[in-house]
Write a structure and sequence with these properties.
This protein has about 350 residues and is an alpha/beta fold. The chain has two domains: about 5-240, NAD(P)-binding Rossmann-like Domain (Rossmann fold, 3-Layer(aba) Sandwich), CATH 3.40.50.720; about 270-345, TATA-Binding Protein (2-Layer Sandwich). It has helices at about 5-10, 10-15, 20-30, 40-50, 80-85, 85-100, 115-120, 135-145, 175, 190, 195-215, 290-295, 335-345, and strands at about 30-35, 55-60, 105-110, 125-130, 150-155, 160-165, 225-230, 235-240, 270, 275-280, 300-305, 310, 320, 325-330. A hairpin with a 4-residue loop joins strand 9 (about 270) and strand 10 (about 275-280). Bound molecules: zinc ion.
Length: about 350
Amino acid sequence: MQPLLPPEQRYARQIRYPAIGPEGQRRLGQARVAIVGVGALGSVTANHLARAGVGTLTLIDRDVVDLSNLQRQMLYDEADALEGKPKAAAAAARLASINRDIRIDARIAHLSSNNAEMLLQEADLIVDGSDNFSVRYLINEVSAKHGIPWIYAGAVGSSGMTMTVLPGQTPCLACLFPEPPAGGSLDTCETAGVLAPIIDTIASIQAMEAIKLLSGNSHALHGALLQIDLWHSEWQSLSVRDARRAGCPVCGQLRFEALDGTREEALAVSLCGRNTIQINPTQPLAYSLERLAARWESLGTVEHNAYLVKLTRDHMPSFVLFADGRALIMGTDDDTLARRMYTDLLGE
Ligand SMILES: [Zn+2]
């Protein structure tokens, strides 16, 4: 498609900023960014980077849009939720309507040790839009192994934090947090809720770091673990300059336990704030989505599109199945029930 405006006009306000200039803009146009999770944080970073003219965006997300997401996930609307569109596909469609001149690659997938390197290793930068530490450890290891910078972020309640990781230069996530926080020890958006403006703030800092890094301005990165609480108006910048650990298993010893799958990966995962259980298959699907849709017709209401099949029954959680065999069981936090439904509908 022909550009509506030549880049020097479309991005004129950005190019006028002296540290960007025409050369910085050209670099942004050639950059490839992978965004892991396009929920709340990822919606904001993807929006900024698409508008800024980053050449290629890969959007990786495992979930579908739900009405309860709209309070904070800025790329989606009621129609996306009512259709139950996968977030990666809904985000890609929205961003394509904002900027036709960039490449957007939607990947409906759960990042795991099986696909993390394949999905991330071509990127120049990885942006964390996830909500859990198992995904962040995978990103951290791909970053260390392939020399790709990444930007960590998390937000819950009214506070959030972010840090930019440059492999070989700054501490990595495992230097600061060698072990994932014990289950139940952390507030999550499920237990503590989350207010949307902190998400925008933290994700906007991520987007600005991305723009600095990709336009050739690494010297301007903030170089800290930033912690912000917008309700209590507290801003803290903890310098991480001396936090790199020579004995760090990931960036020091180059041992990749998450990627090697030596860290246990749960089959059933509860999705934060969603009253939803995800089941990861141990084997690929034996049947096509079409065939399963036909088979389930006698059980309840079946909806079927290019990405998924959804089965809705009275007094039962809804069951959403993706082509890669992954399922979301929506309307329950009971993982035993979720596993049983998976087995009942798909066999062992
Ligand atoms: Zn490290």
